[in-house]
Design a protein that fits this description.
The protein is mainly beta. Helices cover 9% and strands 66% of the residues. A hairpin with a 5-residue loop joins strand 7 and strand 8.
């Protein structure tokens, strides 16, 4: 399922790339499963984006939320990943700074494992996510940013603050 969503969105972004400013980016940050007593692992995201003008962008990403564990016997481990598509509304502040609002959808997959039993559950679904961010662009190819994104999921939301690096293709 991830493959079909990824392929369709990738074709959409690449098709529009002829008249826009494509970029490749990575994000890393702390993951907080809001409805569970789990530790906060580090997550990462790989994204392909297309900035259509100074105010609008579209991003396709793969997000790995890491492996979260609880400290109660028997120990549980939860791992979640998602394929996401988001639209960004961007407000430039001067030549190098900007703030943005992100809204999109994602298809997620969660595995739950318990010590001694192995995998005890596999959950999937499609939900919404939204967030805020700010970025600094020292030149035409490089952008460094901070963001907060909340991913809605059936078993409980995930909060994902992080730092990002984007490379814009010339």
């Amino acid at each position: 399922m991830h493959f079909r969503i990824l392929l369709g969105a990738l074709l959409l972004i690449l098709g529009a790339a002829a008249s826009a400013n494509p970029y490749l980016g990575v994000t890393a940050g702390s993951v907080d499963y809001t409805d569970a007593e789990l530790n906060k692992p580090t997550g990462f995201e790989i994204k392909l984006g297309n900035r259509f003008n100074d105010y609008v962008a579209l991003e396709l990403s793969y997000v790995d939320f890491g492996e979260a564990e609880d400290d109660i016997e028997p120990e549980w481990e939860v791992s979640t990943d998602a394929v996401a598509l988001a639209a960004l509304a961007i407000l430039p502040i001067g030549d190098q700074f900007e703030v943005n609002v992100r809204v999109g959808g994602h298809h997620w997959d969660t595995q739950v494992r318990e010590d001694g039993l192995g995998q005890i559950d596999n959950l999937t679904g499609t939900d919404l996510h939204y967030g805020l961010g700010m970025a600094f662009r020292p030149n035409e190819q490089i952008q460094i940013g901070l963001h907060y994104t909340r991913y809605q999921m059936k078993q409980g939301d995930i909060e994902y603050p992080g730092a990002s690096f984007n490379y814009y293709f010339p």
